[in-house]
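Supplementary Methods S3. Complex input for the magnesium ion-bound model.
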Amino acid sequence: MVSELLEALRVPARVGPDLTGRDTADQLGLADKAAGRRYRDKFLEELPDLQALLWAEDQRSVLLVLQGMDTSGKDGTIRRVFSGVNPQGVRVASFKAPSADDLDHDYLWRVHTAAPSRGELGIFNRSHYEDVGVVRVLGLVPEQRWRSRYQHIREFERLLTDEGTTVLKVFLHISRDEQRERLQKRIDDPAKRWKFNRGDLDMRARWDDFMSAYEDAMAETSTDWAPWYVVPADRKWVRDAAVAELLVTTLRGMKLQPPAAERDLDGIVIE
Ligand code: AMP
Ligand code: MG
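Predicted complex, serialized as structure tokens:
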């Protein structure tokens, strides 16, 4: 059962989220940072065992899709939520601007090969949603082409689900103001400067277009089998707590079982 908290973050099918109407600094009922960390840790303590079961069962997989504007905390979420799990069972795919080879294929080609194998916990740091996000905002393909993609994506995620992958999608929602502060820090802090690209400012200038594109994408693709969640992400501790709960609740709901041992092992003594 998904908790009330997660139910509130879930994007209803077809309706979509009103992103500008959602509070990016929402604390989700958590009193303060310390309470948020405790809440997060309660879930994270369970994660290694659940992941070990997923790996042992070796039949199904989980795919966490992370989207969000620059500085929304995709990398930080991965670092904090997955720090305690066995790297062998985790596969992270980070999607950058497509290569020439990628562009020589349909947009889902590179995405499908990066999907988790049975037993794996997969993470997409950006994803095929760039192909209806930045691609739409920058007009990289004609409208008729990106519009058809909503249906491809619903069906692609249906295919993954039918074949054993549980898909959950998280939009890390920061405010434009919070992004300003985080980008400024990247410039002011010499240790963070490498993270800054001038191109990020062009994207920032298109903020409202990105919000519209994300609203439409989520309305079109939040399905019963692959729902979207909008996580308020101005506060990192709220973000981490929500993603931890979402992931652990999903894994719990899968009722994972280790495979049956071979029979008649009792009494065998290894010489
Ligand atoms: P970063 O996540 O900061 O490493 O940046 C990756 C960049 O690649 C972002 O600006 C994305 O918008 C861009 N990107 C990812 N996927 C696509 C895509 N399918 N088409 C165009 N740009 C993309
Ligand atoms: Mg970047």
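The first helix runs from residue 4 to 9. The two ends are 47 Å apart (CA to CA).
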